[in-house]
DNA sequence: AAGATTTTCAACGCGGTGTCAAAAGCCAAA
DNA sequence: TTTGGCTTTTGACACCGCGTTGAAAATCTT
């Protein structure tokens, strides 16, 4: 990938590389990734098609880099909830809301990265790393609550995975067809769903 | 699609068409659909590449036909649970088990059909039809139970969608990496998860 | 057996991919 | 300033898979 080449200085080339990632983020918003041509990506970053290959070996590799940069953002989103304890409904809802907001903007490539069947080896690697990380964090939070006697039981790793999957798929659906959903309703229901999934109960929503 | 042409007799051509669908089902088991070439599909059905276009206009169209034939099977799977009432844990678990068994075999194209971001317009149409149907059936069952005071509340349509998504994504994950999961554990947890999602509680599992 | 219809195939052009070797730009040491 | 070694950029090329076309072959009608 790019990690091998890019050592030392922020040379001209590194800027271009970043420009490509940024360009991709923008271009991927407009049309299905499978329909985006390398020529297009290169053009958006101001270089020719064959120049592209100097920086990435394929469209997938570029997508992988893009996803890789998304880690930090995703971490921030769930941070509040992960740091809290027990059934902090409001914290969870806020975290979910942040996630949905991001999906509404970058849903196209998020979907490709996290839901697509075979996004190529490059993306796969990054995807697995990210998903594992997210699930692990969630899972340890569940275990912590389990020790406090708050949860309803069940294997924490699986429950975490289900919660994460539930989250992404619903976000993806909202992205795909925003008109079909009432966002607040989705967030409320999703919050309750996750709480019930893990703790068996969902506290009465605080009046909004 | 194919519906226009195929009226009347099961002519030679109709057999070939079915042969293509069957061939596809088999070929799709072996490798990612995006890597399957039309030439390969045609060859597996005993015709040349250009012959393929006499029957389907694209790989996606063929996939759509394949998915279309899968309706009946999917319906059978969930029939028992949908016909039952309230928290029939065993019925739900059996229905889920049947689904998982099918995904373990045909997960490749099921995933492509139900989880892929943009599987082309042909598949999209069939997919939406099927998903809607599944969600609606589930949703009416929830409403029925809601009237009986069994559920915990929340918009039935959304809950149904979540349950269906939860199901497919977990099945997909098991298909993708069977070694990483204990099937029984997945089924138990998934059963409880859905029950908690809709009814707020999951009854103690009947001893196995 | 003649015509009409259905099915098969070989050949073509198109568009996107990935590779390569040569050219151009850059920078630092002599 | 010139030189030599790097990084970056480019145009040309071969390849592969797609979808079309038009005509030949097989099959079905009477």
From TrEMBL, chains A, B:
DNA-binding listed as a keyword: yes
A Pfam family recorded for this sequence: TetR_N
Keywords: DNA-binding
Keyword DNA-binding: yes
InterPro entries, alphabetized: Homeodomain-like_sf (IPR009057), HTH-type_TetR-like_transc_reg (IPR050109), HTH_TetR (IPR001647), Tet_transcr_reg_TetR-rel_C_sf (IPR036271)
GO MF, one example: transcription cis-regulatory region binding
Coiled coil: none
Top-rank taxon: Bacteria
Domain (HTH tetR-type): residue spans on this chain: 14-74
DNA-binding feature ranges: 37-56
Protein name per the record: TetR family transcriptional regulator
Organism name: Actinoplanes xinjiangensis
């Amino acid at each position: 990938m790019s990690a091998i080449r890019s050592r030392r200085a922020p040379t001209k080339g590194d800027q271009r590389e970043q420009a490509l990632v940024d360009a991709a983020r923008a271009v991927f918003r407009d049309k299905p990734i499978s329909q985006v041509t390398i020529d297009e990506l290169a053009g958006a970053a101001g270089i020719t098609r064959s120049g592209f290959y100097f920086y990435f070996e394929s469209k997938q590799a570029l997508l992988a880099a893009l996803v890789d940069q998304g880690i930090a953002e995703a971490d921030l989103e769930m941070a509040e909830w992960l740091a809290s304890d027990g059934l902090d409904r409001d914290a969870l809802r806020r975290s979910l809301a942040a996630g949905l907001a991001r999906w509404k903007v970058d849903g196209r490539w998020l979907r490709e990265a996290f839901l697509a069947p075979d996004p190529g080896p490059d993306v796969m690697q990054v995807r697995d790393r990210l998903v594992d990380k997210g699930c692990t964090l969630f899972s340890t939070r569940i275990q912590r609550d389990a020790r406090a006697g708050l949860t309803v039981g069940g294997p924490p790793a699986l429950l975490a995975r289900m919660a994460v999957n539930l989250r992404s798929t619903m976000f993806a659906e909202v992205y795909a067809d925003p008109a079909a959903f009432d966002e607040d309703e989705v967030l409320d229901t999703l919050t309750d769903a996750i709480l019930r999934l893990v703790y068996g109960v969902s506290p009465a929503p605080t009046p909004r």
